[in-house]
Prior knowledge:
Structural class: alpha/beta
Distance between the termini: 19 Å
Shape: globular
Oligomer: single chain
Helix content: 25-40%
Strand order of the largest sheet: 5-6-7-8-10-12-13-14
Number of strands: 14
Amino acid sequence: MYPAKNGDSFLVDAAGTFILIDAGFASTFQDFIKPDLASLTNDGRRLALAVCTHIDADHIGGLLEFFSSNGPQPRRLVEVDRVWHNSLRSMPLQPGKEEGVQGKLVLEALRRRGFREPAAPGPIGARQGSSLAKMLGHDGYLWNEGNGTTCISQDQHPLVLSEAVSVEVVGPSRARLEALRNVWLKEGAKLGYKGGAASTDLLDDAYEMWCATAFQATAPKIRKVSANGNLRLADIYAPDHSPANGSSIAIVIKSAGVQVLFLGDAWAEDIVAKLRAGKPATGPILFDAIKVSHHGSCHNTSPELLATVDAPCFLISTDGSRHGHPNFEVLAEIVDRPASFERRLIFNYETAASARLRSHASRSGTPFSISMAHTNWISLEG
């Protein structure tokens, strides 16, 4: 679990099969991920899968830096067997006429925004003005099991990477991807873009750069106030309504008896519906580890989700610099539930909420521990 500032980045070693999930910002890749990928190449290894969960600067920035520097065959930093990334060309547009001059001007203006790195020392990637879609298409990666014109959604069959490793998609639904596309078309029309049907590099760039910045301040503001400050998650939970987060790819990686749930920034309601589909509600579904959605936000972890899933290990990725993540009420609700095992909560930064949790006593008496991942491997056993 890389120190990705307020973002996400995970490198998974599943019985020798390597999977990269998001890459934080450009600086995350340069400072931490790039040396590890170079080591993989030196050891004769490769990435079996790289996943961009959704188009948000704190998830996609490092992937842009990676793929812009990885280059085409045959001299790559590391070989990548396949990439999952839902861009605009992954969702078909309605037929329409070729975009006019005004529309192209709007797209050019959006492209010039680029992808923003948070204020900090260090360089920003030189090609942060190109979309991931453009890079994947130009450099010939196997993209969404083809050329990027199909989407990754919960409707597809699990991907088998080896005899011991598989990846199941539990989000998003196709409807969530269509909703994000439709918001883009609506907002683009307000700016003068009429939604031409042809997928182009300019359109890919403009769409991704718009997505990366359009939803940064849209978190629900509903929050109750308690005189004694002892709020429970049920008191403050308000569902996320960001279309970008709703489009987040959430996966279960299974390897040699171990299964880990990576939630990206997914909506709690979608994950509950998918995991409970066709299964009796006889108790929580147990994983060996769960990556908590949206950096521990109280808008993406609901009481119902925590009644649906549990694990002896929870991963929380954020430095706490944006939106007050993680919310203490989410952390407390995780550890307050009764369980027959001790829970480990692993952070990549100390935050106000993690510090407060150190003095918290579980309401159920179930033991828990807190640790910092730094840049060490986190070992999981089934």
